[in-house]
Specification:
Layout: H1 4-7, E1 36-40, H2 48-58, H3 62-66, E2 72-75, H4 91-99, E3 107-109, E4 114-116, H5 136-147, E5 157-161, H6 164-172, H7 179-196, E6 201-206, H8 214-217, H9 222-241, E7 249-254, H10 255-268, H11 283-289, E8 294-297, H12 307-310, H13 323-342, E9 347-348, E10 363-364, E11 370-375, E12 380-386, E13 390-391, E14 404-408, H14 416-422, E15 423-424, H15 426-431, E16 449-454, E17 459-465, E18 488-491
Parallel strand pairs: 1-5, 2-8, 5-6, 6-7, 9-11, 15-16
Antiparallel strand pairs: 3-4, 10-13, 11-12, 12-14, 16-17, 17-18
Length: 494
């Protein structure tokens, strides 16, 4: 019998360890970030893109850009708050909320005398490279214009999550060898401009393998998938090569380990990776083709999906994250930034992450993150590691339950980012396209670390794979809470 049959059922059983959160939960991370500014594309756009497009379509440029002059252009049903290419807040909004910072749309269109001051300059459709409209350089110029004459703020965080559209263009065109290096050059220029105007903290992202997007995962030929993988690697090498101007701290967040972990959690918790909405990446073409003066674009759901099911999908359409995946990316970004700037774990409080949580439903969050609470019953501060992507109440009496690993009364040293980069799940590793040698075995590497919820003793446990036969084959975890076997050595997370 497979080990997983003993354990996976416990993920839905709270058991005797559940308790109400009759505890003080106030906590603020000790970070000195003053403001957060965001530059990017539809992965970060929280309303600027559709607002600017609406204004352009109403202007004299309407005939050129929108097919004809329009009375209005808006996002309708299925799009979060009529402003995002997703069904929930984008990752930048999630991260900003956890930092307690505003994230309002911002733009500056000099030729139209249209300007709005805010923090999020991301515009859907933008490339890092220069193009006629919606490019990174325009966003940086808008930020410079809005901050001209203002005191420089070295404590602000400047987020550049951009380059996806440059990559998509290069993947589509096999002869395109310029988009990726061009994107990296523009990102470097943007960092230099930010630095010249007082920026001292910049967050950039290395993408996870683009061949994993639904567009390529199941519908592309092998050559296209290979090209997507290779171009992602080229882009990420470019991010590594960025040069920090004097006095500037560039934080590089690699999304690949996070994606590997999220894939495992998706399998373990039966979350569908597939898209829910038909592709919406050609919105401008749809606007041009519309005969209406008032254009309202609503999401068209793919067969087998709908508004309620979309909450549990990882992708909104064939390239855009769902609100759920944005939530996970935003929490991970928050953890990474706090850890990078302070050298300590980011700390969360119960129920602060998901503003779209349904009443009487589990809270949604990201496994591995650290939570803290003042237990007024025993007069101690407690720390817990989230052991699921959903949770309910903390356990009492300094114990574990299915959702929480009690980490002690002092902050742990193994933070969320490190946990998610290191840990694997038995069943998920078995599922992830790895060659299976016999029905109960899947390959792993010596030193790989695994986690498990041991239903026999009601405790979360961690193991290191010993690979005794040097063949990557492994078998059951010991279930008695103390023992080891030829495959597994017990480890402790501090």
């Amino acid at each position: 019998m497979r080990f997983s049959r003993y354990f996976t059922g416990a993920l839905i059983a709270i058991g005797v360890l559940a308790s109400a959160p009759a505890r003080s939960q106030e906590w603020v991370n000790a970070t000195d970030i003053s403001r957060i500014y965001v530059f990017g594309d539809s992965l970060s756009d929280s309303g600027a893109g559709i607002a600017v497009l609406d204004r352009v379509c109403k202007s004299a440029l309407g005939d050129l850009v929108c097919g004809k002059k329009r009375e209005s252009v808006e996002l309708g049903d299925g799009f979060h708050a009529g402003r995002s290419i997703s069904n929930g807040p984008v990752a930048a909004e999630v991260m900003a909320r956890l930092f307690g910072k505003p994230m309002d749309p911002a733009w500056n269109i000099p030729f139209m005398r249209e300007s709005r001051v805010g923090q999020n300059y991301a515009l859907a459709g933008s490339k890092a490279q220069m193009q006629i409209v919606f490019s990174l350089r325009e966003q940086i110029s808008a930020w410079v214009a809005h901050n001209s004459g203002q005191p420089q703020d070295p404590l602000a965080l400047h987020v550049l999550l951009i380059g996806a559209n440059d990559l998509l263009a290069a993947i589509k065109n096999p002869s395109d060898g310029a988009s990726v290096p061009g994107a990296i050059a523009e990102i470097q220029t943007a960092i230099n401009t930010l630095a010249a105007n007082g920026a001292r903290r910049v967050l950039v992202y290395k993408f996870f393998d683009m061949s994993e997007l639904p567009r390529y995962r199941t519908h592309a030929d092998a050559a296209t998938r290979t090209r997507a993988k290779q171009l992602t690697m080229e882009f990420n090498r470019g991010i590594d090569s960025l040069v920090a101007p004097a006095g500037v701290n560039i934080l590089r967040f690699d999304l690949q380990p996070l994606w590997n972990f999220i894939e495992q959690m998706a399998f373990m918790q039966k979350t569908d990776i597939a898209q829910c909405v038909l592709p919406v990446s050609e919105l401008l073409s749809d606007i041009k083709a519309s005969p209406e003066a008032k254009v309202r674009m609503s999401a068209v759901y793919a067969p087998g999906c709908g508004p309620s099911l979309s909450r549990e999908r990882l992708f909104f359409d064939d390239i855009h994250p769902s609100g759920y995946l944005h939530l996970l990316l935003g929490i991970a970004s928050y953890d990474f930034v706090v850890e990078s700037l302070t050298g300590r774990c980011a700390l969360h409080t119960w129920g602060k992450e998901d503003v779209t949580a349904l009443p009487h439903d589990f809270q949604r969050a990201l496994m591995g993150s650290i939570y803290t609470i003042q237990n007024t019953w025993i007069g101690k501060r407690e720390y817990f590691r989230l052991a699921s992507n959903k949770y309910w109440y903390f356990p009492t009496s300094e114990q574990d339950n299915w959702a929480w690993h009690f980490a002690g009364n002092r902050p742990p040293s193994t933070c969320g980012t490190a946990f998610r980069s290191r840990m694997s799940n038995w069943d998920a590793r078995h599922w992830q396209g790895k060659p299976v040698y016999v029905s109960d075995m899947a390959p792993a590497g010596r030193g790989d670390q695994f986690f498990i919820w041991n239903t026999f003793i009601g405790r979360h446990e961690y193991f290191e794979f010993l690979d005794p036969d040097k063949d990557g084959k492994y078998h059951y975890f010991p279930a008695d809470g103390v023992g080891e076997n030829r495959w597994w050595k017990r480890i402790t997370l501090n």
